[in-house]
Write a structure and sequence with these properties.
Length: 193
């Protein structure tokens, strides 16, 4: 029976994410994608991480927030998620700009699997579990989508404007729209399985 979370409350989604439900995190990601893209659009310098790297850090921050949120602390989840997302991105900036990593940051982009910027108060076992869950989600997406569909999804999640699609990806807006339709369809069908 398919798991449908479109109408689920935020509290229900968080409970399911804490139980390891990928579909619940997918829905939570859809609801908070705007916040991640907004935070990733901070002013850029020559020594800033790529927007895609910041977005990956943002989704990791959202996942950490969902797994560790405690509503008895008095803050709303949105406030807590905003802080976790921002902290992950600040950590990415720091790692990217550190002198000891200058060679790496100028020759290769961050891959989102780096655990160096995680909050000090987090349990290493929990961080390992979060990392493994993120890798499972990444493998699931890699297996479902074609290379073009992955590229289109990456552009979409990065917040690239439709008017810039042809220049950034070398594909027409119509091809982009068609690929996004296939992506949505495949992701919805995978949730039903």
């Amino acid at each position: 029976m398919p798991k449908r979370y479109e109408d689920a409350t935020e509290s229900d989604l968080l409970s399911h994410v804490k139980e390891g439900d990928f579909d619940a995190f997918t829905e939570l990601s859809a609801r908070y994608g705007w916040l991640i893209r907004l935070k990733a659009e901070a002013p850029k310098t020559a020594l800033s991480p790529d927007m895609e790297d910041l977005i990956q850090e943002g989704y990791f921050g959202l996942f950490v927030a969902a797994k560790s949120f405690d509503d008895s602390m008095g803050a709303s989840f949105q406030t807590y998620a905003r802080i976790c997302i921002q902290n992950r991105m600040i950590g990415a900036y720091r790692r990217y700009q550190s002198k000891k990593n200058m060679l790496l940051t100028t020759s290769a982009s961050l891959d989102g699997r780096d655990m160096a910027g995680a909050a000090d108060r987090e349990d290493p076992a929990e961080l390992l579990e979060i990392k493994e869950n993120m890798e499972v989600m990444n493998r699931k997406i890699q297996g479902l989508l074609s290379p073009m569909e992955r590229q289109v999804l990456s552009l979409y999640l990065s917040g690239v404007k439709r008017s810039d699609i042809e220049k950034r990806a070398g594909i027409t807006v119509k091809a982009f729209d068609n690929a996004m339709h296939r992506v949505r369809s495949k992701l919805k069908n995978s949730r039903a399985q």
